[in-house]
Amino acid sequence: MEAPSTRLPIFFIFLLLSVSSPIFIQKSLADGVTPDEAKQLRDEVREMFYHAFNGYMKHAFPLDELRPLSCEGEDSLGGYALTLIDSLDTLALLGDREQFAASVEWIGKNLRFDINKTVSIFETTIRVLGGLLSAHLIASDHTTGMKVASYENQLLDLAEDLARRLLPAFDTPTGIPFGSVNLLYGVDEHESKITSTAGGGTLTLEFGVLSRLTDDPIFEQVTKNAVRGLWARRSKLNLVGAHINVFTGEWTQKDAGIGTSIDSFYEYLLKAYLLFGDEEYLFIFQEAYGAAMHYLFNDPWYVEVNMDSAALVWPLFNSLQAFWPGLQVLAGDIDPAIRTHTAFFSVWKRYGFTPEGFNLATLSVQHGQKSYPLRPELIESTYWLYKATRNPRYLDAGRDMVASLQYGARCPCGYCHISDVEFHKQEDHMESFFLAETVKYLWLLFDLAAGPDNLVENGPYKYVFSTEGHLLPATPQISLVREHCSYLGAFCKSRVESESDAINNATSVEEAKHSFSEGTTSTETPPSSDFDELTSTTGLIRGFCPGLTHGQKFRMIYIGSTSTDDESVTETEAAQRHPTVVVTDHNSGHSTSDEKNVDNSQEHREEDVMNDPHPN
């Protein structure tokens, strides 16, 4: 009999990982990694950060990124001090008040986005927008211990300005955004209509946080529509492809996997639920995760398959897959995370780094994918697994990773890309994410072992890490935006008036309950804009109807080809092919005819929603 998987409810595991719990804290460290050595490793990682950061500030700032071999700078994204922005919350995490404050002040005074630059929607969102929002939330809050006295929301204003310049990319028939946009002129008429799944589905955290901070729902709604547009075009197996046409909705690359071009789509489904409490994201994640584990997991590795047939396409481990065990920790699926991390780390130990591609058939580095561009994903998963299990082997792994970086990647002014992991050949480039993620997760790992004293472990909030490693706190303004009408004393947005005033000014719980039941939803209708057609009905979630599927509750749709051959498929086979669980109220006593009536009433209700911008 197979042993049951160690699986915990998602919210439970998130709480355990976010709070220093005596249940998880153990004193044992790795063999050879004493508490004193853990402190030394933490301090060594700190020195690694400043070696690279100071090299950037001295030789490359205000250009985007550092060339650590030649000690020069280069503009790689938009020409707006990218590495400094990406490093802000790492400075705060390390407790460097002076450098953090000086950097915030410089950016607030000098950064502008009204420039004729065409930028990646994905990279600009996760690196720049995320960096600005995270730093704003730290610099504006005295409870973080890093409040900047002279700060007056300059970073938030910059973030809003940047996001509005990205909005034209979402003006597509599917709601899935273009891959690039010009910050001054919008989308070029010759812009490619093909984008990646990760590019269209990894925007919800940053845009969602911005909506809550600015009280403007447009940012959250366009990114949620993008996720819905991708998920609506999933296959019958609940798999998504790698690239899609944003106008036609046709998949141009049907390889399904958890790595390149898809990875963070899965990540942001779960993290959007953890940060915002929106069950729609959880529902999609559960469906997508179940399909990934069923069709892509070849224990302990993951492969790429055709999204329609599940036929094997590519037996390849690529380095971007290494985030997956960390995501599984957040989902509470620990056992497969441990096995997969062990497999992935064996590749690191073999070469000293993880190559971009490792062929599982030949057990060798994939031709043309021999580089290691200082990626953080395996280090990130090592941190999360140590935090969840306190198993000392993850400290051993972290120590090996530090040694590899120090002896193989360290350059005169920073840390170099490794162009060939077999010969440890260095390349003159250092991505900004090395400072935003790679050293951040290493430092957090050893600080946790030495006795944590940092913003994440001991700060005033629980934090969700963006895919760029930026700290997004679960503050009431961000995480309880929909709670203002559910109980007395809950957080209420300043611009919400109608029913929220009645509830928060109620003299009794019964009055509040009455106001809630009679009032409208707390989500405001977005201001009139070019994007109203995209967001006016899909961004509003109303009451729950007993007897409907979870997909019907959230007005989800399925777009895919149909075949008469499916008519002979049994219910069991259909459930295995398309494992959407029908959530019903078992106490409702609906008969089959009743369910048909419910479906009909649902159609009328959707028509009412289309006609009424404020349905109850």
TrEMBL record:
Signal peptide: 1-30
Low complexity composition bias: residue spans: 517-529
Keywords, alphabetical: Calcium, Endoplasmic reticulum, Glycoprotein, Glycosidase, Hydrolase, Metal-binding, Signal
Active site: residue positions: E123, D263, E356, E377
Highest taxon listed in the record's lineage: Eukaryota
Enzyme class: hydrolase
Location, primary (coarse class): endoplasmic reticulum
Residues that, per the record, bind Ca(2+): T467
SUPFAM superfamilies the record matches: Seven-hairpin glycosidases
Subcellular location as annotated: Endoplasmic reticulum
The name this protein goes by in its record: alpha-1,2-Mannosidase
Source organism of this protein record: Cucurbita moschata (Winter crookneck squash)
